[in-house]
């Protein structure tokens, strides 16, 4: 019985393409992770909708300061 030969050129080409796709996918993953990290750091720790609000009763806005002075 004859011994089988090594991998064919087609198989090597197919394997190289698979490795290239794998490397490209890993690069995309790393880039997305960096993008998420930068976005998270850029927004800060505080939600802009509630920035400056503290728990408990809030102070009246300036236009409402003189409402109670008439009585």
Describe the 3D structure.
- This protein has a domain at 11-40.
- It is 49% helix and 0% strand.
- It is built from one helix and no strands.
List keywords for this structure.
71 residues; mainly alpha; 49% helix
N- to C-terminal separation?
A: 112 Å
Shape: rod-shaped
Mean pLDDT: 82
Radius of gyration: 32 Å
- Helix/strand structural class: mainly alpha
Strand content: under 5%
Largest sheet: none
Low-confidence stretches: none
Q: What is the number of E strands?
A: 0
Q: Count the helices. How many?
A: 1
- Please bin the fraction of helical residues: 40-55%
Secondary-structure element order, N to C: H
What is the topological layout?
Blueprint: H1 9-43
Offer a quick outline of the entry:
This protein has one helix at residues 9-43. It is mainly α and 71 residues long. The relative contact order is 0.05.
